[in-house]
Amino acid sequence: MTDYKRRNHHRRTRPKAQQAVSPRMHAGSDARLKRVFAEIGVPDPRPFVPDPFQINALAAIEKGDCLVTVPTGAGKTWIAEQAIAQTFKNKGKAWYASPLKALTNAKFAEFSQIFGPENVGILTGDRKENMDAPIIIGTTEILRNQLYDAMHRGEDLDTDFIIMDEAHYLGDEERGVVWEETMIYLPRRIPLLLLSATIGNARQIAGWLKSIRGVDCIVIEEFNRPVPLFPLFLHPSGTLFPLIADNREQQGKKRLYKKVLKFVNTRYGGMMGSRRMPPMGEILGILRKYRLLPSIFFLKSRADCDYALVLSTTGPPEESPERKELRRRRIETLIAAAPHVADHKQMHYLKEYAVAAHHSGQLPVWKLIIETLMTEGLLDAVFATSTVAAGVNFPARTILMLNSDRFNGRDFMPLTATEFHQMTGRAGRRGMDNIGFGVVIPGRFMDLRLVEALFNAPPTNVYSQIKINFSMVLNLLLSHSPEQIRELLEKSFAAWLIAHPDKRQRDHLLNVTSADILWRDFLHHLDFLKKKEYVTQDNKLTADGEWASQLRIDHPLMVAEGFRKNLFPKSHPAFLAAIMGSFVNERESDDESIDISLVPKTLLKVFQKISMGLQPFAKEMVAGGFSLPALYFLPAVTLYLWARKKPWEDAVSISKMAEGNLAMLVLRTADNLRHIRNIGRVFPDAAETSGKAIDLILRDPVISTYDV
Predict the structure, then answer these.
(1) Claim: this prediction has a pTM higher than 0.85
(2) Do 567 and 541 have their domain in common?
(3) What is the per-residue pLDDT across 489-526, written as a single tens digit (0 to 9) for each?
(4) Are 314 and 281 in contact (CB under 8 A)?
């Protein structure tokens, strides 16, 4: 067990008794901070003047592909706006791809204001509006799927310019394959603009793109933040210190400020000992005294974010009646389109104390309300998990960190430079702050030396995450022979990295998949598809293979087999929604906790029929070394009751999930149902039923008019 795993093994089961409030803090600051705090304020208004990197990026786009890698908040979107405007002026079409639906929705609203709503369309799993518009905003998965369809029809993609935002997702373990596929399949005639947070190996990515696209990819790099960042340390007494020593005080590798270093060495040896949550109300008072609000606190868990709200009420909120009234009126306007959240259990903290918790356990519409209020300057603090750093755009004057690691879904691991810079990138609002602050708060899971190193660490490198899956194989076989697919795999970033290694990266490249391994994995998938008669012996898709290729979901073969064996309910929308809910569920479910009195016997019979009917096929997949979903009954029961108009609160209670997780389950189920609708030519009844099921489950509060 690694040191980090050992330290964090019991973090999730921390006793409530250990959540006691710390001794009272008294606001104070080190004398060295007087000069720094004097810089706090709002810059003088002045006309916008683009930075040199923005001008250089626009010039580069005229010559070929371009990769822009700059700090978070530096102004990447302006480059996109200008490039789209030029394309639009030339009567061309532009495609803007982003990784997240929330970000896609935000860009759709933003670009609709700039270019006119009649000129902007949106394509996500949830929304398809104005699809013939000259400017399309969509998720990267939709763009990749359009490339599949264009290759199948032997047509060119109907666009003249493509922007891929958050391009560092190329290195995302789960979704990076979609970015890589898109870059490989994209026709050479279409210029590509990649926008990213800072990437350590941007020139390697550019070199790879040139090798597969035949045009130069110009790298535009900027390492300076638009708003300077100053790192602070909050002593448990309430005194603020500089975190890092200035150049005159540096001795060897000891870069922590001398008083912080003394605290580390004499008291806790570098790892703070307290398990208690700090007194958030008192910390907010300190931040208010030194004009460090608004702020974002990055906490390790949803529970801590929620509990931080309680700790924020220890002192009276210091706020003008006018601002409080303005916030209340704004909240009333926002919730008018989402009445379900009017009685949200955290509404009191939002209205009275100007604080909010923001994490994936909450409803999308509630998070959107918080983001709106924060962006409009109506909140003092947001308590968020670190995932918020990559997913939204509401900067603050100050960010505060309580731990130096992050839960990646399996383990607590040290923050990477990219994750750290995305978090600190929220500190300091361009045009609103002269300076931003990153405050480190000591605690049991805070390694101050690691954080000090991260403040000055170079950006993280991005590595290929390409992998073979059945959906990829089926879709490539629509338009390519195996020999042509092998050529595509040889164009992967993984293959290029292995052929062009950097000696400093050799340890990382051990985990990069070679072209030969990709090819063998492709053949392994191909052999199984032939065995199950989705592909002929001469490598052509069978009729079943063709319609199965349209199931661009996580487990296409399991769902395809269900239709092949006539296992799925084709005329009962609530039953079909329930079954699809089990297929997209990724969490262990306590099926023993189900109240049988709530479950119709017919649903249980349908579920058992599918489970038993797919069991032989599932055994074959496991024997072949392929992954498959574990089908639980509880998600099916929850989706069925929700589809049958059960109140949301009851559905949440039955599901044993946080409402944000249940909302995500519903949205992903609806997305799978849309793919079933795509095979209506072969299964018209199921397609029609899928449409009805989508209408049943996509209702307030999962979606609301405020979402659109």
Answers:
(1) yes
(2) no
(3) 999 999 999 888 776 666 666 667 788 999 999 999 99
(4) yes
